[in-house]
Design goal:
Layout lengths: L1 H24 L2 E9 L10 E5 L4 E3 L5 E7 L2 E8 L6 E7 L4 E8 L5 E3 L3 E3 L6 E8 L5 E6 L5 E3 L3 E4 L4 E8 L7 E12 L4 E11 L6 E4 L11 E9 L7 E7 L9 E2 L10 E6 L7 E10 L2 E4 L3 E4 L10 E8 L6 E8 L7 E7 L6 E6 L5 E7 L7 E10 L2 E4 L3 E4 L5 E11 L5 E11 L5 E9 L14 E4 L7 E9 L8 E10 L3 E3 L3 E4 L8
Parallel strand pairs: 1-7, 9-16
Antiparallel strand pairs: 1-4, 2-3, 2-5, 5-6, 8-10, 10-14, 11-13, 11-15, 12-14, 15-16, 17-18, 18-21, 19-20, 19-22, 22-23, 22-24, 25-26, 26-29, 27-28, 27-30, 30-31, 30-32, 33-34, 34-37, 35-36, 35-38, 38-39, 38-40
Length: 525
């Protein structure tokens, strides 16, 4: 019986010892020292925090710290001590092992400025710098080397231990010439530590111009009806930027007369972001950053952004294609539809003079697949119109992208001036005919004047036996004929009906007919 009891006790001890050993094998620990970076002395009262886990300890007089019972893995140690810069260290914990860490903390300078450089750019006039006293005792300071174009709210003072003071620095450009300016200002200090440090002042004065602004090369967060885009004011032009942002539209080179964001005013050169919303799906937009000051408005480079397609049940897709046969008052609108699994009940276009066209043109009501068009009439000459194709299925309307076109304009002839004088030969007259014209972008075949002397040619043309006076085209949009002509059938009273003409590839265009008598003062309008 006694032997059995001893055996049970032996087994219990063995099991307990084995379990205890297993627990130790599953955890690890950290131990370490914290020392001064410059002199190697041990640092006491340094707070050491462990993450993850949220544990923290404080070093003793021997600068030591430690953590035990840590699950294997990677940990971050954070070290914080007044008068020293914070430090971190990463440690890997292995089961049943102790990891050793030694950390060096660098003491903060007793007297520190919050900024090394204050850059005022070409228009900012006020900034703030802070003095930080990291020592335990008071520290006095004095500022010297301030340029004539700058002023400090304080140039002497005392900063208590562990405290800070703010100083306002102001710039006055009124009494200096345009140029770049840089000045080192010295802060001398004395207290527990004695020495000096410098602050660099940088600014420029420019001859007043419009701002300089740039546009980001691409948009962000593009969706079917919105996107974000950045810009940057590179220079203010020497005066306050009164408004800035982005402008956009469906035609190239948008201006602030189109849609725009207005992000307010600023004196700083900085980056900015516009969030542009309320757009149409699957539409190409042209975007430019802009900035305006008292001298005018400047624009960045143009960026093209296309919104995402609007997904529709059944997969119907509509495409707006380029307009064709653009005339002065007529045009052909073009589009196409892929119905997907839906049945199309109507298709056509919306058009109008704004970039949100609302006038509906029904091109057809059959189950359309493929291209379709609409011959639009009654337009204004030289006007810009916007349009988008649409199709209707059982779930509603599906739209293509918004496009635009500008109608043609008529050629014009103006500022006609005519003079005829008697020649020594009574059968001849001296002529000086002049007119200005616009070809409206059309190709000119020939141009000049037609003239006649009787009722039949009182409205002379190239087809009614009028006399044709061709002119050499010099590219300056003027017609000028100087020469001698026969007096024609009428001998007693010399006069002419004169009319300028321009022959294009597809039409002949005439100016008004003028009656010109001999010795009429020139010009005659």
């Amino acid at each position: 019986m006694r032997t059995l009891s001893r055996f049970i006790i032996f087994i219990s001890v063995l099991l307990f010892t084995s379990c205890a050993k297993d627990i130790v094998d599953l955890t690890g620990s950290i131990s370490g020292l914290v020392k001064d970076f410059d002199n190697g002395q041990l640092i006491s009262n340094c707070r050491v925090s462990l993450s993850p886990g949220g544990k923290s300890v404080t070093t003793g007089a021997d600068g030591a710290f430690g953590f035990t019972d840590l699950e294997p893995g990677q940990y971050t140690l954070s070290f914080s001590k007044a008068g020293y810069n914070d430090e971190t260290s990463t440690v890997s914990i292995v089961a049943s092992r102790e990891s050793s860490v030694s950390v060096l903390l660098k003491a903060k300078a007793a007297f520190v400025l919050s900024e090394d450089v204050l850059d005022f750019g070409d228009s900012e006039s006020s900034k703030t710098v802070r003095i930080l006293n990291n020592s335990d005792g008071a520290c006095s300071f004095q500022v010297s080397g301030i340029p004539t174009w700058a002023s400090f709210s304080r140039t002497t003072g005392t900063v208590q231990g562990g405290a800070s003071e703010s100083i306002n620095v102001n710039i006055d450009r009124s009494s200096i010439d345009a140029g770049d300016y840089r000045q080192l200002v010295t802060f001398s200090y004395s207290g527990q530590a004695t020495g000096s440090t410098t602050l660099t002042l940088v600014m420029k004065k420019v001859n007043l111009t419009t701002p300089t602004v740039s546009t980001a090369t691409a948009a962000d967060n593009v969706s079917k009806d919105s996107f974000d885009i950045k810009g940057k004011i590179e220079a203010t032009g020497g005066s306050t930027v009164l408004k800035y942002g982005h402008c956009w539209g469906t035609m190239e080179n948008p201006t602030i007369d189109n849609s725009k964001t207005d992000l307010g005013s600023t004196d700083a050169t900085s980056e900015f972001t516009s969030s542009i919303t309320g757009l149409s799906a699957n539409t190409t937009y042209y975007v430019r950053a802009y900035a305006s000051n008292a001298q005018g408005t400047a624009y960045g480079a143009q960026v093209i952004v296309t919104t995402e397609k609007d997904s529709t049940p059944g997969g119907t897709e509509v495409t707006t294609t380029d307009a064709t046969d653009i005339q002065r008052t007529t045009v052909t609108l073009n589009g196409s539809v892929d119905p997907g699994s839906e049945t199309i009940s109507e298709y056509g276009f919306y058009y109008g003079t704004s970039d949100n066209p609302t006038i509906r043109l029904v091109a057809g009501t059959d189950n359309k697949t493929g291209a379709f068009s609409y011959a639009l009439t009654g337009l204004n000459e030289g006007a810009t119109y916007y349009y988008k194709a649409y199709a209707k299925n059982s779930t509603g309307f599906v739209y293509g992208a918004i496009k635009s076109f500008t109608t043609a304009v008529s050629p014009s002839i103006s500022n006609e001036r005519y003079k005829i004088e008697r020649n020594a030969d009574k059968n001849l007259i001296n002529c000086d005919f002049y007119a200005e014209f616009s070809s409206a972008g059309k190709t000119i075949v020939e141009a000049g004047f037609v003239t006649g002397t009787d009722t039949y040619t009182s409205k002379p043309t190239l087809d009614n036996n009028a006399e044709k006076l061709g002119c050499e085209l010099t590219g300056d949009n003027t017609l000028h004929y100087v020469g001698t002509l026969s007096t024609g059938r009428v001998q007693t009273t010399t006069f002419r009906y004169v009319r300028p003409y321009i022959v294009f590839e597809d039409e002949t265009f005439y100016g008004e007919t003028r009656y010109v008598a001999v010795d009429t003062p020139w010009p005659n309008n």
